[in-house]
Structure formats: C-alpha cells, structure tokens
Automatic annotation (TrEMBL):
Keywords: 4Fe-4S, Iron, Iron-sulfur, Metal-binding, Oxidoreductase. GO terms for molecular function: 4 iron, 4 sulfur cluster binding; glutamate synthase (NADPH) activity; metal ion binding. PANTHER family: GLUTAMATE SYNTHASE [NADPH] SMALL CHAIN, GLUTAMATE SYNTHASE [NADPH] SMALL CHAIN-RELATED. It comes from the Bacteria. This is Glutamate synthase [NADPH] small chain. Its EC number is 1.4.1.13. The keyword Oxidoreductase applies. Residues 151-457 form the FAD/NAD(P)-binding domain. Residues 25-136 form the Dihydroprymidine dehydrogenase domain. SUPFAM superfamilies: alpha-helical ferredoxin, Nucleotide-binding domain. Coiled coil: none annotated.
Length: 479
C-alpha cells in the first residue's frame, strides 16, 4: 500500500544533498549543493510523518501542500508531485533554493521537534521541479479562454511575475514594466549565483515570454512613461515594485562605505559579463580588502559570502544581537562560517575612521541583550567602556530596505501610503486608494523573502480577476 512508503523517519536519518567543500566553493559563484538523485529524493520524502495537522504547510506563507507532494515523490509519481507543488507556487524551483526553510517549513516539522531531524523539504522541492523542466513537463501557459482585458504590472520581481503567471492562466493580457534591463528583480540582481543560478530565472522568463507576457524593460515609471499613461492603457494596474531604498547609518557618506544592493548588483552584473566601471575601479570590489558587513539578515550573508569569492583579505559581519536572535537563515550563517567569514555578535557600529583614501575602520559598540521588546525579542543595550575599532577597507551596509516615495516619484498624490511609506493596500486583495490599481500587499517584507512576494502577487492577481469580472458584469448591466 502507498502508506507503507511513508513514516520512515525512525529508521531513515535526515540526509541533505552533498555540499561542495568550502575551499572549492570559495573560488566561484556556482551552486554549492548537488542535486538529489531519484532514489535519494524518494527516500528522504518517505521520512514525512503525514501528520494530521501539517505544521510545515501552516508555516509556509504560500501554504504549499507539502505532505502531498512528499508522498507522491516517495511513490515515484514525480509529475504529479510537481503539479501539486506548482499549484500553489509560481516558482517552486526558486523557493527550493533560497527560501529560509529552517525558519519556516523545515523548522516547524513535527519530526524535527521530536528529535529525528526534519524532512529535507527544500531539497525535494528543488529536485522535483528541476526534474519537471528536464522532462518537459513545464510548458508555456495556455489559457482555456483568452480575455480582452489587459493588466499593467509595474515591477518584474517575484511578486510581479507571480501575478503575471496567475493572470495569464486566467486569460488576461499582461504587460510588465521594469526599470532594469533584465527580468527578475532581486532574484536577478540581488541574490548571488551560488544561491540562485541565473539560468533558473532565465528559463522562467522565457516561459513567460512564450506564454504571451510582454516585458517593457529599461523603463522608469515617472520618467520614460507616466503612471497615468499606464493606467490609461490597461484595465487594471498592479504595483509590484518591491523596495530598493536602503536603510542608512548616520554619518556614513564616506568613500569605501557602500550599500548592499549596489554591491550585490555590481557583482551579479560582473558575473553576467556586463561592463561595471564601479567594480573595475575597486569601489564595489572586495578583492584584497578587509571587509566589514553591517547587518544580520540574509542580505548580509549574501554580501559576506560574495566578498569571500571576490578574494577579500578578511570578511567580518557585525550584528547587534546574538546568533539565536539573528533574523537570517541559520543555514546561511553556517555556510558563511565554513567559507571563512567571522561573525562578530553583539556588536553595533558607532562611527567610522576615514583617511585620504576613504574608510579605514569602524567604531564598534559592544552590546548585551536586555529586556524583551513588544515582539518578544530581547533588546540590545550598549556596554559602557567596551568600544573598539574594527579595521576595514570596505564597509557594506546591509540594514534592510525602505520604500521609495512612489506618489512623488510618479506624480500621483492620490495614491495613499502607510506611515511606513508603503503603498496602502487592503490585506488579501492589494486594493489601493485608486480604482483599478492594486499593490503587492507587504512590499517591504516581500523584498526580504521572495516567498512572501510570490504569495502577495498571487493574492493580488486573484483580486484583479474578480475586479475585471465585476467591471465586465457592470458594463453588461449598463447596456
């Protein structure tokens, strides 16, 4: 019986795909994990307990049907496993690579809590989707019925692309506008190749193009085209811009002190073979330098691991809390340490030492953890008299992102924003203060974790289809 293939977590240990040795992976930007073989994927999937209340699914922002596709994989029914996986997720092969499973699905696995080691959910997800591409199961979208309405999407990142996928499946005509010259947003220019190979994004882009999605690239809304022009051209508009304005430090406008997004974009462009003057000049190149990265999220880990691969003399990461309170993936922290990064816990920047050629050091406050804040996390407090200077030739600020002032940039005063500056959007639908204009719900968080952007993009697309249906019904009634 099919059930006999499951519940093997007692006799079968957890086993991740083989990982390249740190000394080898420091030399390039290639993926560090090997692919599961078919038998190994089935074996690891068979460890799933098929529990009645699947916490893995509950803690997945997309509510992926994880136990179902694990069972199908264990049974060797890979095409069905892929179909179940992609039913709730536009990019399962991307989430399988970059989603922080240790803090979401895998971190909440029942057998992990019982001490048997979690199911390797992300690696199986990656395997079944890569297999689907190899076998030709992933095909261009062909809607059952084409609709006359069109939707303009501003932003070709994960939220915008997830919405485009949903809308094309509903037969809606889709045009995606983006300021960059390639599709993918942070998946293309923010995330390094050792976590997400760029051909993975490219093949999805090709699928979208073959599905009838039109991309208008190198197009800045408010400069190359007005927001009103986009509204006038389409029946509805979705704002999926993400956030690219970096949080800053006081008095940090010095040579050698750079933003994480600029640093990572330069590195990715260089790996694409683009001409990058800021990299060639050394401004955004860590080669031979003492590098200090400030921050504790996944972006900080991307920066430190990139600096290692660029040949930095040393790489340190300053974080004001301890390891247990770090917001990023613990798996990424472990990979960084293996590759030679030094994590300096309970340390916060105070200022900078600068010379004629730019930054020379970071003044550091040593911290301790005090009482918890409203979220339950213990607040960092300064330890008086424990300051010191960390030598640095390159300082990278990886402090998270803030929204741009879209109403001002686009000349749309009626577009309401929240007190954080994000577009005010109704939860679950993304509806904004403007009729027919929607937004990817929580674009700040969406920039941090691709999986939330995918969820919000799909939810907003579903609301747009409902809006188009209601508009069409109202038009018929008026006639």
């Amino acid at each position: 019986m099919a059930e006999n293939k499951m519940l093997k977590f007692v006799s079968v240990p957890r086993d991740m795909p083989e990982k390249r040795l740190a000394a080898a992976r420091r030399e390039d930007f290639n993926e560090i994990y090997a692919e599961f073989a078919r038998d190994k994927a089935a074996e690891q999937s068979s460890r799933c307990s098929q529990c009645g209340v699947p916490y893995c699914q509950t803690h997945c922002p997309l509510h992926n049907n994880i136990p179902d596709w694990l069972r199908l994989t264990a049974q060797g029914r890979l095409q069905e496993a892929y179909e179940v996986s992609q039913a709730t997720n536009t990019f399962p092969e991307i989430c399988g690579r970059i989603c922080p499973q240790d803090r979401l699905c895998e971190g909440n696995c029942v057998i992990e809590q019982s001490g048997h080691g979690t199911v390797t959910i992300g690696s199986v997800e990656k395997y079944i989707t890569d297999t689907a591409w190899e076998e030709g199961w992933v095909q261009p979208i062909r809607a059952a019925r084409e609709r006359p309405e069109s939707v303009g999407i501003i932003g070709a990142g994960p939220g915008g692309l997830a919405a485009a996928d949903y809308l094309r499946r509903a037969g809606v005509q889709v045009t995606v506008y983006d300021r960059y010259d390639r599709v993918g947003g942070l998946m293309t220019y923010g995330i390094p190749g050792f976590k997400l190979e760029k051909e993975i994004v490219d093949r999805r882009t090709k699928q979208f193009e073959e599905s009838g999605v039109e991309f208008v690239l190198n197009c800045k809304v408010g400069e190359d085209i007005s927001f009103d022009a986009i509204r006038g051209k389409h029946d509805a508009v979705l704002i999926a811009t993400g956030v690219y304005k970096s949080r800053d430090l006081p008095d940090s406008d010095h040579g050698g002190v750079v933003r994480a997004i600029d640093y990572l974009t330069a590195s990715n462009r260089r790996n694409f073979g683009d001409d990058v003057p800021e990299f060639d000049s050394g401004e955004l190149n860590a080669a031979g330098k003492k590098v200090v990265v400030i921050g504790g999220g996944d972006t900080a880990m991307d920066c430190v691991r990139t600096a290692i691969r660029q040949g930095a003399e040393s790489v340190k990461c300053l974080y004001r809390r301890d390891r247990a309170n770090m917001p990023g993936s613990q798996r990424e922290v472990a990979n960084a340490e293996e590759e030679g990064v030094e994590l300096v816990w309970l340390s916060a920047p105070k200022g900078f030492d600068c010379g004629a050629n730019g930054v020379e050091g970071v003044h550091v406050h040593k911290m301790r953890l005090g009482t918890p804040d409203a979220t339950g996390r213990r607040m960092p407090e300064k330890i008086e008299g424990a300051d010191y200077v960390e030598q640095a030739d390159l300082v990278i600020k990886a402090l998270g992102f803030e929204p741009e002032d879209l109403p001002t940039l686009w000349g749309v005063d009626a577009l309401e924003v929240t007190r954080w500056g994000t577009v005010r959007a109704e939860f679950g639908t993304g509806a904004t203060s403007l009729d027919g204009v929607f937004a990817v719900g929580d674009i700040v968080r969406g920039a941090s974790l691709v999986v939330w952007a995918i969820r919000d993009g799909r939810d907003s697309a579903a609301a747009i289809v409902q809006y188009l249906d209601e508009s069409a019904s109202a038009g018929v009634a008026a006639e």
